Amino acid sequence: MADAVTFEELKSGADRIFEAFGREFKRFERFVGDNQDAFFVQATIKELERDKFSLADSESLSRELSDLRTRFTGKKSEWAAAKKTVGRMDPEERGRAGQYLLAIEVGMTDRLERARINLDKITENLRTAREAIDVTLPGRRPRRGHLHPITVVREKIEDIFVSLGYAIEDGREIETDFYNFDALNIPENHPARASQDTFYTSDGYALRSQTSTVQIHAMQRRGAPVRMIAPGRVFRRDTPDPTHNPMFFQVEGLCVDRGISMAHLKGTVAEFLRRMFGEQTVTRFRPSYFPFTEPSAEFDFSCFKCGGAGCRICKNSGWIELGGSGMVHPNVLRGAGVDPEEFSGFAFGLGIDRMVGLMYGLDDIRLLFENDARFLEQFD
Ligand code: FA5
Hints:
Layout: H1 7-25, H2 38-50, H3 55-73, H4 78-84, H5 91-131, H6 149-163, E1 167-168, E2 174-176, H7 177-180, H8 192-195, E3 205-207, H9 213-222, E4 226-235, E5 247-257, H10 262-277, E6 283-290, E7 293-302, E8 319-328, H11 330-335, E9 344-351, H12 352-359, H13 373-376
Parallel strand pairs: 1-4
Antiparallel strand pairs: 2-3, 4-5, 5-9, 6-7, 7-8, 8-9
The structure holds adenosine-5'-[phenylalaninyl-phosphate].
């Protein structure tokens, strides 16, 4: 059995704890007040506002107050230990000791509780004040977004072709080798696969390297005749530079019907470019090669800036290269279920990003995908 404790010993221990409490509680004293009194809370808030006391201050004080309560009156506190010593006192002293301790304890808990209630009210008030809306203030104007320049140009292209009677097809960005290459007359080991090398998934799919894949889907689904354009994202293993991105946008066009000839192709592309860049625009075709068209041609248009005289945009040539085109190869028609004896068609494809670059005078198309608001906001 531990040594007996005298009343004097217990009293001096309790007094010491109470004094320590008094020192630490000093900073909360101003919150004690009379907890029934709303005026006290309002007056204290006014006073606190003068001291630039914020909601965050009030919240952190509440936490500190709760810590103080635990430290001084909690189960593991020195105070709780002191109370236990009453049991080790002479039974005759216990009553006096109990009363003494109770008086001090009430002195602590009563002040802690009043300060807590008032601090809670103050926190609540400050929170309401912060969330209050001053209806007399002018409204904050919402910032309106705007379309990305690629979307603006894509929509313009779509409008023109819709007015020429074309449907708009949504392609898929992940394709099988069949749609990306085989169906476009690019068998395995054909050198054209290398120039359009793309990204592959581990389970045999590829990110499409051109929108020409949609030609096949469109013919398989709609049969012939068909007239459609397919704008969309394509991917290539190209190293980024001012005119190349590994991800960019193309628009594919396809027209299949009875008796379609190269003349229809030239007329359609020329009309599209006139509507896009103005009546005076001249188009030219140069022989080229694509595995899925025969004959094939690349097309250029007269520079919209200098009208063909030569300038920085057209690199003094007077012409701007835009895309590839040709008559759909009979193998492609056949592979997509269209009889090449009955139908013929033309197709063309162009890159939107470079067109946007030319139209907006960008010297680097990589800027289009850097997501820098300072750059994009210029196209509002
Ligand atoms: C093609 O992709 C063919 N599918 C076009 C076609 C369609 C021919 C239908 C015949 C019939 P080409 O690889 O040349 O062609 O690409 C077309 C356009 O995409 C280019 O003129 C260029 O504007 C754009 N382009 C190509 N690579 C990039 C790149 N890395 N970054 C940005 N634009 C690119």
